[in-house]
Amino acid sequence: MTEPAIDITALRFAWTPGRPVLDVPSLVIGRGERVFLRGPSGSGKSTLLGVIGGVLPPQAGRVAVLGADLGQLSAARRDALRADRIGFVFQMFNLLPYLSVLDNVTLAARFSPRRRERAGPDLEGAASRLLGALGLGQSAMLGRSVAELSIGQQQRVAVARALLGAPELLIADEPTSALDSDTREAFLSLLMQECAAGGTTLLFVSHDTSLGRLFDRELSLPDINRARPEAEAA
Amino acid sequence: MRLLPLAARSLWNRRVAALLTVFTIAVSVTLLLGVQKLRTEARNSFASTISGTDLIVGARSGPVNLLLYSVFRVGDATANVSWQSYEMVARHPDVAWTIPISLGDSHRGFRVMGTSSAYFEHYRYGARRSLGFSAGGPFAELHDAVIGAEVARALGYRLDDRITIAHGLGEVSFVEHDDHPFRIVGILERTGTPVDRTVHVSLEAITAIHEDWQGVGPTPAIGARPGEAAAPNLTPASITAFMVGLQSRAAVFQMQRALNDYRGEPLLAIMPGVALQQLWQLVGLADTALLLVAACVVLAGLLGMVTALLTSLNERRREMAILRAVGARPLHVFLLLEFESALLAAAGVLTGFALTWTTLALAGPLLERQFGLFMEVGAPTGYDLAIAAAVVAAGVLAGLLPAWRAYRNSLADGLSIRL
User: Is B18:B33 a contact under the CB 8 Å cutoff?
Assistant: First the structure.
């Protein structure tokens, strides 16, 4: 368990040949670290997360996530790695509208036997414990349709899902930008707390620089990415 | 992976569109099953119109024409058969029985057939069933009539009612033989064949009517004494056709050839089974076309499903991205859409079956009354199940298109929507 959570060397990625979106010489994030990655829109942020999440194959260079070299894995193995060991939280609309709160949280276990196993024999119990820790413990909440929740509540449900079955890496892509400032602080401290409790590495991406002080380390994507996708495109 | 419940929940979330799709498929399946059942029943009832008769003999025309007017009471004979020829055949040692048929008159839209009591004794339909009486019995006297079940129902006739017979075949006839009131002495049980729609009288009665009619005017004396029914002067000069039953079926080809080669008069002898086959080939074309149309409607229903799924894909890209983020592979997205197609098609087929059986149960009596079609409401046949399997299979096949589109979208979109 000595390998870093994320270890990127000389990564290149281009949607169209000759127009690189990513050119990252090095990015290392250690296990259990909580890293803030500042990435304005158009800086290649979504592409980088796609590569780390195993959805996009690295075109050049080495990308190792949780000790697995993504370049060596088939698309199916990368999907399995994401299902088993990575949790995602997006800006909004994280939840399937046709599933209840509880079913949305346990959705992660549907695609990963490993996470189902790690969540313990009582999957729904584990899910409601997580929801409880995130302030959504009322039993009336569990069976509710997600459409009845506020955005802040929806984001916390998304965190519960991302953390179910204790994945080693949590990637949060602008999870707070749809929240007002009061709920944002509360949301962040809950997120930090839960990651710390599980020893989960947190990669938190946002353009809101005011949040950076709360993290172990602060990075800026334009600093680590030599490609200038926006400039190239313009 | 439990994708199936996920597909079901996703469909339920879009239930208005999904239910409409299911209903479209259900209606098309109902049509297909209905047409198929109608075809089978029509063929069965068609084939069972006449049985046990070895030959039908009429004046020379075409086999189908002879079958049509002698058995189905459709169309008219172009010429008659002389009584002498009939007598000659009837007395032949190989012949077990004959049924003479004399057509050309009607009663309020129903055909009147002159025949002999041999008809009630020897005529067979279906699985060699003989005619039975629901009331009364065969005619015995000159002005007795026996009516088919449909005639009795449609006109509300009962035993001992008196009817008149019109010359010609129209619903309304200007020349009614109303000085010959016939008395209904028998009502036949329902057979599901043209017999139900026929008024039967004796040959002598037909002759009596026509001798009168050919004269200057009605003679009040005739018919006043029914006891003279069998008077020799009422023997007809000719009849329209006759049915023949042989002592041994082995003689049928020989007899047929002999009759067709008869020099005394141009005759035509047909085997009913063979002629029925020929006629069915003619009618069968239309019902194959009907089946084809029904199959096309099912195709249209499935295309509707594909359209509905394809149009939903764009607004569901977020859903696919979420599934991808929690670890779904593009294959899972593909399967999710395939399950949705399969569920829609299966639900459509089930609803279609329910609709068909309900319709059959409700409309069955009506079909039987109006068209003499007896639609059996039983367990689905192997053919029905084959249709069900074929529609679901076609649905799954049609679902490949939206599934493949969703697969490609999810590969391109990944975790975020790239438009």
Answer: no
∠ CA(B359), CA(B362), CA(B368), 5° rounding? 105
User: ipTM of the assembly?
Assistant: 0.85
- Please return the burial class of A95, using the count of CB atoms within 10 Å of its CB with bins 0-12, 13-18 and 19+: buried
Residue closest to B374 by CA, chosen among B385, B387, B360: B360
Neighbours of A180 (CB within 10 A): 10
State the nearest Cα–Cα gap between A55 and chain B, in angstroms.
6
Closest by CA position to A6, among listed A57, A60, A49, A56: A49
Window 58-117 of A, Cβ < 8 Å to B? 75-76, 79-80, 82-84, 88, 90, 93-99, 103, 107-108, 110-112
- Name the residue ranges covered by the structural domains of chain A: 6-233
Q: What is the pLDDT of residues B5-64, one digit of tens each?
A: 889 988 888 899 899 999 999 999 999 998 888 888 878 778 888 888 999 999 998 888
The tokens for A38 are 């500042």
**Closest B-chain CA to A159:** B326
Tens of pLDDT, residues B57-76:
999 988 888 998 999 888 88
User: Rounded CA gap, B105 and B6, in Å?
Assistant: 70
Q: pLDDT of B339-360, one tens digit each? A: 999 999 999 999 999 999 998 8
- Considering only CB atoms, which chain B residues are within 8 Å of A97? 13, 319
**Strand locations in chain A (E):** 6-16, 19-29, 34-38, 60-65, 68-69, 86-89, 169-173, 201-206, 217-220
Residue B120 amino acid letter? F
Q: Could you tell me the CA-to-CA distances from B261 to A18, B63, B91, B255, B256 in Å, in that order?
A: 95, 15, 18, 10, 9
**CA A8, CA A65: separation in Å to the nearest integer?**
8
- The three-state secondary structure class of B366 is helix
Strands A6-16 and A19-29: antiparallel
Instruction: Give the position of tokens 């069965």.
Output: B44
The whole-angstrom separation of Cα A108 and Cα A118 is 12
CB hemisphere CA count around B268 (13 angstroms): 20
Rounded distance between C-alpha atoms, residue A164 and residue A181, angstroms = 26
User: A47-70 burial by CB neighbour count: b if 16+ within 10 A, else e?
Assistant: bbbbbbbbbbebeebebbbbebeb
Under CATH, which number does the domain A6-233 receive? 3.40.50.300
Q: Is A10 on the interface with B (CB under 8 A)?
A: no
Least confident of B183-187, B228-232, B259-263: B228-232
CA distance B244 to B95: 7
What phi-psi label fits residue A174: left (phi over 0), alpha (psi between -120 and 50 degrees) or beta? Answer: left
Q: Is residue B413 over pLDDT 80?
A: no
Could you read off the pLDDT of A146-172 as tens digits, one per residue? 888 888 888 888 888 888 888 889 998
Query: Hey, of A94, A105, A111, A115, which one would you mutate to test binding to chain B, going by the most B CBs within 10 A of its CB?
Result: A111
Block residue for tokens 């000759």: A18
> Tokens standing for A93?
């609309």
Residues near B390 by Cβ (< 8 Å), separated by ≥ 6?
A: none
Residues in B lying within 8 Å of A, measured between beta carbons: 1-2, 6, 9-10, 12-13, 318-319, 322-332, 414-416
Q: Where are the domains of chain B?
A: 3-46+284-413, 84-247
Structure tokens at B248: 């041994």
Cα A78 from Cα B16, distance rounded (Å): 37
Give the phi and the psi of residue A97 in degrees, each rounded to 5: -65, -20
